[in-house]
Amino acid sequence: MEKRPFGQTGAHFPLLSFGAQRIVDEHNCTEEQAIQIVNRALDEGITYFDTAPSYSKGQSEERLGKALALHNRRDEVWIATKTNDRTRDGSFRLLEDSLKRLQTDHVEEWRLHNIMKMEELDQCLAKGGALEALIEAKEQGMIKHISISGHTNPQVQLEAIDRYPFDSALVALSAADHLVYSFAHEFLPKANEKGIAVIGMKVMALGKLAPWYEKALRYTLSLPISTAIVGMESMEQLEQNLAIAKNFKPMTDLEQLDFLKEIMHLANPDVLKWKSTDWVSGEWYER
């Protein structure tokens, strides 16, 4: 698979990375299957794994930790996890629990999870806010890089990278996202200019782009990003994603335009729930 630089960190990753949110009971993936899927991904060169304590109440982190510990493969991977708490103290407690579940003494990347509104950003960056925990954790060697994520309004993430030199940003970059509050148009150019690693997510728009699976994945991988995480709950999904990524050819401008025309009807609040003003942060953390 093609490898790309991860911002200014010095790391490089394959263009396809692993979203670990779905290796859980909630998505009909057993622990045994999760361990097999993670190790198969590693065997195929995938080294970037994204998780969070809020994914199935810690089960995602726990299974990723078990999969790596069972075969002694922790040193082969870059782990990114998150805090959905907006305070320093609450975030530190989350990190300590995450490290226990992941069976490690550090993670490569820790990020502010799903900052939707300017008020949330203000809270995180204020005195006693979550960013203090990220900075202190880095100083203590508990994390190596500081990140932020957002699904909703690219203006919030643009403000964030103006106010703090984040190493990376995880943002919604499906083809459907292109049509409303577009991170591809509004956020990517500025992030690239600043040398910030950008990770694409929501590649299948919570399954709404499944009928155009290969096109959807090719669209996101064709953007000027460092890598894209795709949630995988079965070996079949992993193999499908690997096949597309290994044979990846960037979409031409004309191909992108034709694809966007095909899916334009999906640009509505029922499909792009994370772009709707009715979408609340708490609802996301239970998913």
UniProtKB/TrEMBL annotation:
<dbReference type="Pfam" id="PF00248">
    <property type="entry name" value="Aldo_ket_red"/>
</dbReference>
<dbReference type="InterPro" id="IPR023210">
    <property type="entry name" value="NADP_OxRdtase_dom"/>
</dbReference>
<protein>
    <submittedName>
        <fullName>Aldo/keto reductase</fullName>
    </submittedName>
</protein>
<dbReference type="InterPro" id="IPR036812">
    <property type="entry name" value="NAD(P)_OxRdtase_dom_sf"/>
</dbReference>
<dbReference type="InterPro" id="IPR053135">
    <property type="entry name" value="AKR2_Oxidoreductase"/>
</dbReference>
<feature type="domain" description="NADP-dependent oxidoreductase">
    <location>
        <begin position="16"/>
        <end position="216"/>
    </location>
</feature>
